[in-house]
Design brief:
TPR repeat, 6 helices
Length: about 100
């Protein structure tokens, strides 16, 4: 993903999820790929699936907030940025997300 090849990442994480459909790290990574490829609805679905098994999984909370933001649902994205901030107040991305969603 760091090299910007999101299509290849999407394929790789989809294959990983065929082997282990509940792997929350693969779900979050694929969610990130979907978001970077301009498909926030699919990104949201993967983030929500990752949260089903663990409501406090911080990476999935962030991805859900980002997906909601990119869908234009600023109110709900703000809610998830705040949730992440409560769980991990030291993470700057949640503070920035709150600011972004409030603008």
């Amino acid at each position: 993903l760091k090299l910007g090849n999101y299509e290849k990442g999407l394929i790789s994480f989809t294959l990983a999820l065929e082997i282990c459909p509940t792997d929350k790290n693969s779900l979050v990574a694929r969610s990130k790929c979907y978001l970077l490829l301009g498909q926030p609805q699919l990104a949201l679905q993967d983030a929500e699936t990752a949260l089903e098994g663990d409501k406090t999984f911080i990476k999935a909370i962030f991805q859900k907030a980002e997906a909601l933001y990119h869908l234009g649902d600023f109110e709900h994205s703000l809610m998830f940025y705040h949730r992440g901030l409560r769980i991990r107040p030291e993470l700057e991305v949640f503070r920035l997300g709150v600011q972004k969603a409030q603008e």
